[in-house]
Amino acid sequence: xxxxxxxxxxxxxxxxxxxxxxxxxxxxxxxxxxxxxxxxxxxxxxxxxxxxxxxxxxxxxxxxxxxxxxxxxxxxxxxxxxxxxxxxxxxxxxxxxxxxxxxxxxxxxxxxxxxxxxxxxxxxxxxxxxxxxxxxxxxxxxxxxxxxxxxxxxxxxxxxxxxxxxxxxxxxxxxxxxxxxxxxxxxxxxxxxxxxxxxxxxxxxxxxxxxxxxxxxxxxxxxxxxxxx
Length: 229
What we know:
Elements: H1 12-24, E1 28-32, E2 38-42, E3 50-53, E4 60-61, E5 73-78, E6 81-86, E7 94-96, E8 99-100, E9 103-106, E10 112-115, E11 118-123, H2 148-158, H3 173-180, H4 184-197, H5 205-219, H6 224-227
Parallel strand pairs: 3-4
Antiparallel strand pairs: 1-2, 1-11, 3-5, 5-6, 6-9, 7-8, 7-10, 10-11
């Protein structure tokens, strides 16, 4: 799984760009290109579809990712909502929060999308009310927001995704405990803290682990280089 950049945290300029996009109140995609540069793609207020793929000239071109099909998927507006559509065009599939999309999938603010090995964050911020001059930042976590012990747990959790991300599954608590020489209870405590920090408490239990992996890689708290042997 390609992480969205090698930096361990978002730069001030990147954070400013994210906050400006949030203030605009329009949905957008946030991802990093093949050079690790942050990309923000605003979804048209009129609802024009956005095409995603490796072919040049598409709305979201991912030409550096060999696991992405030439025309991989698209985003469409249906009523008041945006949906991600993959009608069998992609060879390796399209995923939302670790679950493969079959046909169409309605998107929600904060969903993590995966095209090939590239991660993208879907944001659908609320417009800033007229009587408010500022908007609270919802910037992603950085490496400084987790302890070293918690990051070691994240590294162990993400490790299977280094070699074959499309088919990997996160390890269980016992496997992590064995790797780190910790008790299972200690691992559970770290995992509960990480779920809370990443805002995953409300997700179904079976989705938490995969989404935690994706967010750890998306934010750069864990990098692909660290997972390689």
